[in-house]
Design brief:
This protein is of the alpha+beta class and about 100 residues long. It is built from four helices and two strands; from the N terminus they run ββαααα. The chain has a two-stranded antiparallel sheet with strand order 1-2.
């Protein structure tokens, strides 16, 4: 399992991304600062067309630009993207008054 934490500004924009908990063979690489920095400045509209079930982002989107540092850890990489999107949705619903989710 994983636990992803996001630090957001008052507009729901990611300022920091990190794993509170992550187990697995490639956890050390995914927990690295370089991976987390790829999420900085993203917000829920960036994840709007990210399909969590398929693990696919719209080509050319900012989410599609997030690089998986460990291709062998595709499942963990996709879980991190899913967790980021889920956190952003929850923030929008409970803190931002459904600014993006209608």
């Amino acid at each position: 399992g994983i636990q992803v934490f996001l630090a957001l500004d008052l507009e729901g924009v990611i300022r920091a991304f990190y794993f509170q908990k992550m187990t697995g063979q490639y956890a050390k690489v995914l927990r690295g600062a370089d991976f987390g920095k790829q999420f900085v400045a993203l917000s829920l509209p960036d994840f709007d067309k990210y399909d969590v079930a398929a693990g696919k982002a719209e080509p050319g989107s900012r989410v599609a630009a997030i690089a998986n540092p460990v291709p062998e850890a595709e499942e963990d990489f996709r879980a991190a993207l899913r967790a980021a999107k889920k956190n952003l949705i929850l923030c929008d619903v409970f803190l931002l008054g459904n600014r993006y989710v209608k």
